[in-house]
Design a protein that fits this description.
Elements (H helix, E strand, L loop, with lengths): L9 E4 L4 H13 L3 E4 L18 E4 L7 H9 L4 E4 L9 H6 L3 E3 L6 H16 L2 H9 L17 E5 L3 H12 L3 E5 L5 H7 L2 E2 L2 H7 L2 E4 L13 H6 L4 E5 L8 H10 L2 E6 L21 H6 L5 E3 L8 H19 L9 E3 L1
Parallel strand pairs: 1-2, 1-3, 3-4, 4-5, 6-7, 6-9, 7-8, 9-10, 10-11, 11-12
Antiparallel strand pairs: 5-13
Helix pairs in contact: 1-12, 4-6
Length: about 350
Amino acid sequence: MGTTVSGMTSVTMFDTKKYDREHIGASLVDAGFEVKFREFRLNPETVETVTEGTDVVCVFVNDKVTREVIEALAAKGVKMIALRCAGFNGVDLQAAKEHGLLVARVPAYSPYAVAEHAVTLAMALNRHIPQANRRVRDMNFTLDGLVGFDMHGKTVGLIGTGKIGKIAGQIFKGFGMRVVMWDPYPDHAWAEEHGLEYVALSILGRAADIVSLHVPLFPETEHIINELVIKELKPGVIIINVSRGALIDTVALIEALKSGHVGGVGLDVYEEEEGKFFEDLSGEVMTDDVLARLLTFPNVIVTAHQAFLTREALDEIARVTTENIAAFGRGESPEESRIVSV
C-alpha cells in the first residue's frame, strides 16, 4: 500500500459537490485521510490532476475510469478506486485487475430513497402536479386537463426486484395496487409473503398502468424499453426510470409521447446525461436535441439524478466509503459484498 510522506492515506475525490464535501469528504477527513477535492469528473483529460503518491481515487457514477485512465493512475501509484455509488459500469474492471487496482463500491445506501422517488414521480405525473403548481402561481385556478386516476385498484409493473424494486413494490401495494413484476432472478418467497406476482415481461407490459424500471444496466438490459416493447405497452401508460438512462431508447420514447401512446414519463436518469446532470447549464444553449425535445412535453418530469439524495443516503455512502478506504489503509480488504475487482 502506498502512503504520503506523512504516513496518511491520500485520497483524491472527483466530481464533488457541496453535499459530497459536507458528508463524504468530512467523513474521510475525520477518519484521518488526506483528501483533495476535484469539482470536475475523472476522465482521460483530467487524470493528470492526480498527483504522484496518491493512494486512492474516489469517484461517482459519471466519472470515466477507462483503461487509459487506469494506466495513468497505476503509473502514479494509485492502488484503489473507491466508488461512492453502487453502479460500476464506468470502470474498466479488466484493466483495473491487470494493474492491481482494488475497486470497491457502496452496494446499497438507501433503497428507500430511490424507491420513494420513483413513487413520487408516478404520483406527480398522475395528478399533474407540475402543471397545477404553475397554474396557481399564475393565478389560474381552473382544473381543466388535470384529471388523474385512483392508483387504488390499478396495476403497476416493476421491471427488476432488487432491494429498490422490492421496496417500490411494497409501497405501491400499500396504495391498494396490483403489483406485477419481472426479474431474471425472481424471489418467489418474498412475492408470496407480500401478495405480489411475477409474470412474463410481455404480460407485465399489457397489464400495467404504470411501469417502473429497477434493473441495473448491462448489455442485455440496454434499451429494455424500446420501440417494439413500447408498442406492446398499455395505451396511456406512465413510465418511470430511476435506475440507468440507457434502459430506455429515448428516441422511441419521444415518438410514443408524440403519438399519445405513452401517457406520462418520469425520469431521474437519461442515457446522455453525462456533462449535463449535476451541472448548472442555465446560462448555456441546450445542444442535446433529444433532451430538448423531451423537455417540451407537459407530461414529462425529469429530475437530475437526485433519487438517491437524502440525508440518510449520504450518511450511509459516507460511512461505507470511509470503511472501504480505511480497510485498504490497514492493508485489509473491504467486505466481500463491496468488492468489484481485486
